[in-house]
Amino acid sequence: MGDYVNVALDAMGGDNAPKEIIKGAIEAINENNKVKVYLTGKGDVIKTELEGYTYPEEQLVIINAEEIIENAEPPVMAIRKKKDSSLVKALNLVKDGTCDAYVSAGSTGATLVGGQVIVGRIKGVERPPLAPVIPTENGCALLVDCGANVDARPSHLVQFAKMGSIYMENVMNVKSPKVAIVNIGAEEDKGNALVKETFPLLKNCPDINFIGSIEARDIPSGMADVIVCEAFVGNVILKMYEGVGATLIKKVKAGMMTTLRSKIGALLVKPALKQTLKAFDLEQYGGAPMLGLNGLVVKTHGSSTSIEIKNSILQCITFKEQRINEKIREKITVQD
Amino acid sequence: MGDYVNVALDAMGGDNAPKEIIKGAIEAINENNKVKVYLTGKGDVIKTELEGYTYPEEQLVIINAEEIIENAEPPVMAIRKKKDSSLVKALNLVKDGTCDAYVSAGSTGATLVGGQVIVGRIKGVERPPLAPVIPTENGCALLVDCGANVDARPSHLVQFAKMGSIYMENVMNVKSPKVAIVNIGAEEDKGNALVKETFPLLKNCPDINFIGSIEARDIPSGMADVIVCEAFVGNVILKMYEGVGATLIKKVKAGMMTTLRSKIGALLVKPALKQTLKAFDLEQYGGAPMLGLNGLVVKTHGSSTSIEIKNSILQCITFKEQRINEKIREKITVQD
């Protein structure tokens, strides 16, 4: 079987590494025989962790790496100095063609820098954005960019829109995805300098289904499928999802506990509620792909458990099978 | 009684004008004998609407204005041309000293432009921000700026922090309010160009209790009392509050209706839940003040009902009694 989708997985990255990372790898290869996982990290630690699991051994490779890049380390320096780190070694597996994709719950900064510096951009792509899938009322949307590049230019946002459309159409199966730019009003003349300059470029872009501006309040309701914004704004949107969600759920729980009557009610609604709210959980979709690289780089939450790691590994299969990077190469031309 | 707090109220502005606006005015003067409301708008419409209400007549004045500024109108042009509009006439009452404050649920753009052009800035204030009070887990916070000025400069943000601190300390009674700047990470070297330039200025500002960066996820939990950001980001934060809140509440309701068991539970938890969620309602705090003007300008939601109008009128009393503008004049010096 030379036809595996080969995924490099940083076994040492994330709050729950290596335990949950390795568990996620095992779950992925037990569930799917098309994927092969390259675990990078301290060999003895990984081997100890693997004891007790049963899995198809031909789908798992251990690549020893003695160093670990911590979250607090300055990314550029860390990438340069720690050549024997689990993160750098995993990214090098993508660079040299051994692997198709890289998955990590480790340092976001080092993953983003490493993605650009080690894996490298597709020719013509100016800035590879980080594009998490976020839940909406009736499905999901892609938020692009969300942390890879601050102080973006209009041409970057146009590329984000193109790459995001390709992803939503081919990976998430949304036909002719609706693209919108985050703005502070619906009218074309509203917005800051970046949005005003970008709006006409998106409007005249033949490759996307541009529906205009979107106010942040309409993002959770699912008005658009590809939400284009610069990284600072994207990061604020993503974090507000988490923050407002967590606080509201806490309020709902506290509200249910205020009276005896409500406590009894809470016992009755709990199972149904849990089910519904699961569909609005940010982690269900796996990690966020970094688009426009010569290979796939997926950043999962620092707090990822095995489920998110498994889902992130499995989404690499779709990414490869749907030939996302080939499609990006077709649409992004060097003069963009 | 020459000692009234005089409030100019645009009777024709907002989705529910004039009915709810006038109802709010009546409720305010019936509740508090320190406030006098100047209703601007079509005299005959206002008079018809007032029929059936009983109220202290010495606390209500009708100022006739034949024109209305619509939401869709370009603000600068509308302010200039419609001299006989309810909005312009109300703002002129503040300008000429008849009124201390102005309240409107009408066009945000026209209110913001009119505030600057007609009422005018306090000497030294570079940009008067719109600063809504937002609910948090254990109280509230001030979000400043939230829509008045896009593409702000570092010096503007420092003034926002100072004015916001004065407001939270004196109007909301928060002792030594914690000021934070919205950022995409907690470290000082994170962020876009604006944040990086502003951070050291805030750190060295003696008039505020600066606690550093805040990630958007920590805003709803109440980590800071004054949230400083430029208007585009502030607008996104405010709208995400509304959007995520609305979608989640809808999900919770839907979840409760999925099984017979959960439906019965829903009946039991409903009253307690309603009470708890009320404390997380954006509208409970009245409108958003525009800080740094020669007078108080308060913008309420376009969809305001009488309760928000009433609360907005009453908050003008505290604003005047606490001498907020005098305190801003002391802290904002022209060289700022």
Structure description:
2 copies of one chain form a homodimer. The first copy, chain A, has 336 residues and is an alpha/beta fold. Chain A contains 11 helices and 11 strands. In chain A, the strands form 2 sheets. In chain A, strands 3-2-1-4-11-10 form a 6-stranded mixed β-sheet, sandwiched between helices. Chain A has a 5-stranded mixed β-sheet with strand order 5-6-9-7-8, with helices on both faces. The longest helix of chain A is centred in the C-terminal third of the chain and has 26 residues. The first copy, chain A, is globular and about 60 Å long. The model of chain A has no long low-confidence stretch (mean pLDDT 91). The interface between A and B is large, with 62 and 62 residues.
> Alpha-carbon distance between the termini of chain A?
39 Å
The tally of strands of chain A reads: 11
The greatest interface here is: A-B, 62 and 62 residues
Strand content of chain A: 15-25%
Mean pLDDT of chain A: 91
Strand order of the largest sheet of chain A: 3-2-1-4-11-10
Low-pLDDT residue spans of chain A: none
Radius of gyration of chain A: 21 Å
Class from helix and strand fractions of chain A = alpha/beta
| Overall geometry of chain A | globular
The succession of helices and strands of chain A, N to C, reads EHEHEHHEHEEHEHEEHHEEHH
Biggest sheet statistics of chain A = 6 strands, mixed
Number of helices of chain A: 11
Q: Helical percent range of chain A?
A: 40-55%
Name the quaternary structure: homodimer
